Amino acid sequence: VHILKASKKAARIDLEKLPLSEPLKRLCDLQNWSAEELAVGGGEDYELLFTLAPEQLNDLQKEFERQLGKTVYPIGEIEEGKPEIQWYKNNQKVVLSKAGFNHFQE
After folding, report:
1. Where does the chain have alpha helices with state H?
2. Alpha-carbon distance 9 to 47, whole Å?
3. How far is 60 from 87, CA to CA, in rounded Å?
4. CA–CA separation, 14 vs 87, rounded Å?
5. pTM reported for the whole predicted model
6. Phi, psi (5° rounding) for residue 69?
7. CB of 71 within 8 A of CB of 61?
8. Is 85 in contact with 27 (CB distance < 8 Å)?
9. At CA 63, angle to CA 17 and CA 1, rounded to 5?
10. What is d(CA 72, CA 78) in angstroms, rounded to the nearest whole number?
């Protein structure tokens, strides 16, 4: 959220776009946990997260795959608005119970 505050922007994250592994989904099903909440608030770094202009996405995806053999997963957008993360699932705004760990909290 500190980056959103500095840029005075909001982030819209679509939970169904998170690249969740099949083992994580199975474990969460067995334990009755939310895989999405665990991925965004479990306290461990999950994936590299970055922003870029929408028109740069296609070229970056191709180059990332070519050089690293990895996929880039667009999971949301930066928008005008209150500096906060807005979580969405199936195009409906949701509230997550886990806030996650803030490495920059004073």
Report:
1. 2-7, 22-31, 35-41, 57-68
2. 22
3. 25
4. 6
5. 0.79
6. 70, 25
7. yes
8. no
9. 45
10. 17
Tell me the three state secondary structure of residue 95: coil
Largest CA distance in the chain: 40
Cβ-based burial of 5 (10 A; exposed 0-12, middle 13-18, buried ≥19): exposed
Beta pairing partners, 11 = 78, 85
Q: 69: how many CB neighbours lie within 10 A of its CB?
A: 7
**Residues 98/42, Cβ–Cβ less than 8 Å:** yes
Please give, one letter per residue, the 3-state secondary structure of 38-97: HHHHCCCCCCCCCCCCHHHHHHHHHHHHHHHCCCCCCCEEEECCCCCEEEEECCEEECCC
Sign of CA dihedral 48, 53, 54, 59: negative
For 18-60, write each residue's pLDDT tens digit.
Answer: 999 899 899 999 999 888 888 887 766 557 788 999 999 999 9
What whole-number distance in Å separates Cα of residue 34 and Cα of residue 41?
10
